[in-house]
Design brief:
CATH superfamily: Cytochrome P450
Number of helices: 18
Order of helices and strands: HHEEHHHHEHHHHHHHHHEEEEHHHEEEE
Distance between the termini: 93 Å
Structural class: alpha+beta
Strand order of the largest sheet: 1-2-7-4
Helix content: 40-55%
Shape: globular
Bound molecules: protoporphyrin IX containing FE
CATH architecture: Orthogonal Bundle
Radius of gyration: 24 Å
Number of domains: 1
CATH topology: Cytochrome p450
Strand content: 5-15%
């Protein structure tokens, strides 16, 4: 009896002490709306199936009825917000430029390149690399992008001739976005056969798939957070590090190829290419080889995966809406293929609205993270310093209280003046403020060029309902099973 009593009292004391410890740990965040289903020291259990995460996050907002919630992953708080005032306060600030700790999962791969670095390193690199995206450089890229867009159309033509089945667009657009980036930003000519180059590109895109999926998988599986355990005791971790070597080799080849070309051609051939800026800085001892590697990794990833996702989503939206497709075709058809040039892009006004609307519904980068170095107080909610804070663009840009008929694809909302009058922080596919997307004008240009050729050549049909799509956010917004698009060659008289 006494023994049983001692056991009960001991357990009660342990539980009380644990509860007190948990209470102390969570105290600074207790005033924040917290979804109920949290277990002390374990936190909220995120679904392991990546296609269920968007619904899970939506549910947390619905259940609490709040625009900012705090969830727990073990003993780590994560604030998730769709509060436009919070977005504005943090994103426009030059003080809050540090990315969240979740980005640590990307560091083995991207190092601390421009996307992840902060402080002085970020400022210096941003200043160094901005000239690569000036208007004159973009203009000089028009012909390169245009040529690759035409090659992409030829690939689609061949595919549609082989069989009439719908084509999966996330995959097929990767070749276009990668080739374009390699030539325009890295000056790559690869003195290799086309088949060898294609094999290299597809093994690189496969590696990127594994590396991005791993970030999302580790995020919801705390037992995989330790790099030591992940690397040595899991099959996925071993595969991850194998793919990392392949991606590293590819990036190293890109850099070596450009060095070789410059040595052969001399400096006369130099444009202000992204990679040439880095190689110049290397000669001036402003950056080391590791720095070049992390920046080339960062730009190769950010510059191709986002673009291929945005093309695929735009084509999906157009392929679902005959009215929009008719209007965009009318605009595109008013410009001849022979006369298509940089200046034509300003005429593609409706096309631009279509792209913007598709980026609203399907932002390729669906979540932005920050960790603020001071407390931030908005709408009577204080977010303690150093809390990982996720700005959920995908949910915010589909919020009915912000966007009328939010779920509908309506490019016209970007035509009228009401868009220019709205708070710019309600629409953030390229983020905003000092850490906005450095490549956004390049991306918009690429999107317009590729849509011009696609719609001139094909009628597009997307048969999957949006509710059928298994959408997920493995760093980039995609759908498992892909986006299947039927490309039907237009008849001569349509043009
Ligand atoms: C439609 C295509 C694109 C979308 C939607 C997009 C979106 C974004 C977003 C939302 C951010 C902010 C991320 C954050 O704060 O965590 C970002 C940053 C960045 N993007 Fe893009 N991006 C696109 C294309 C590109 C391209 C083509 C490049 C390069 C060629 C690029 C390079 C970068 C880099 C380097 C950063 C980090 C900038 C910094 O922190 O200073 N992006 N992008």
């Amino acid at each position: 009896m006494t023994y049983a009593l001692i056991t009960i009292v001991t357990i009660a004391i342990i539980v009380l002490v644990l509860w007190l410890i948990w209470y102390q740990i969570t105290k600074p965040w207790q005033h924040l709306p917290t979804p109920k289903n949290s277990i002390p020291f374990i936190g909220h259990i995120f679904p392991l199936d990546r296609t269920k995460i968007i619904q899970f996050i939506n549910k947390q907002f619905k259940d609490t009825g709040k625009r900012t919630v705090c969830v727990w992953l073990l003993w780590n708080p994560l604030v998730i917000s769709i509060d436009v005032k919070l977005f504005e306060e943090v994103l426009k600030s030059t003080q809050y430029i540090s990315k969240g700790n979740i980005y640590d999962f990307l560091k083995e791969w991207l190092g601390t390149g421009l996307l992840i670095s902060d402080g002085k390193k970020w400022k210096t690199r941003r200043r160094m690399l901005t000239p690569a995206f000036h208007f004159d450089i973009l203009k000089s890229n028009f012909d390169i992008i245009n040529r690759h867009a035409k090659t992409f159309i030829e690939t689609l033509m061949i595919q549609t001739k082989i069989n009439e089945k719908p084509i999966e667009f996330f995959e097929i657009t990767k070749g276009f976005s990668l080739n374009t980036l390699l030539e325009s930003a890295m000056g790559i000519t690869f003195g290799q056969s086309e088949s060898k180059l294609n094999a290299m590109l597809s093994s690189y895109t496969y590696s990127v798939d594994i590396l991005t999926s791993a970030v999302q998988e580790r995020f919801v599986r705390p037992w995989l957070w330790s790099p030591f355990i992940y690397r040595n005791f899991t099959a996925d971790g071993k595969e991850y590090f194998k793919q990392l070597i392949i991606a590293n080799t590819f990036i190293r080849n890109v850099i070596d190829d450009r060095i070789e070309t410059l040595q052969m051609e001399g400096n006369d051939n130099k444009r202000l290419l992204f990679l040439d800026i880095l190689l110049d800085a290397y000669q001036k001892k402003e950056i080391d080889i590791e720095g070049i590697m992390e920046e080339v990794h960062t730009f190769m990833f950010e510059g191709h995966d986002t673009v291929s996702s945005s093309i695929a989503w735009a084509v999906y939206c157009i392929g679902r809406d005959k009215r929009v497709q008719g209007k965009i075709f009318e605009e595109i058809n008013s410009i001849s293929e022979e006369g298509f040039c940089m200046e034509s892009l300003t005429q593609l006004k409706y096309t631009e609205c279509v792209i913007k609307e598709s980026l609203r519904l399907h932002p390729p980068v669906p979540v932005i993270l920050r960790t603020m170095d001071t407390d931030v107080e908005i709408n009577n909610l204080k977010i303690p310093a150093n809390t990982d804070t996720a700005f959920h663009l995908l949910v915010m840009q589909r919020d009915e209280s912000i966007w009328k008929d939010a779920a509908q694809f309506k490019p016209e909302r970007f035509v009228d003046d009401s868009f220019s009058k709205r708070n710019p922080f309600t629409y953030l596919p390229f983020s905003a403020g000092p850490r906005n997307c450095i490549g956004q004008r390049y991306a918009m240009m690429e999107l317009k060029i590729v849509l011009f050729h696609l719609l001139k050549t094909f009628r597009l049909e997307a048969t999957q309902e949006e509710s059928e799509l298994k959408q997920h956010i493995a760093v980039i917004h995609r759908a498992d099973d892909g986006l299947l698009i039927k490309c039907i060659k237009r008849k001569e008289k349509e043009n």
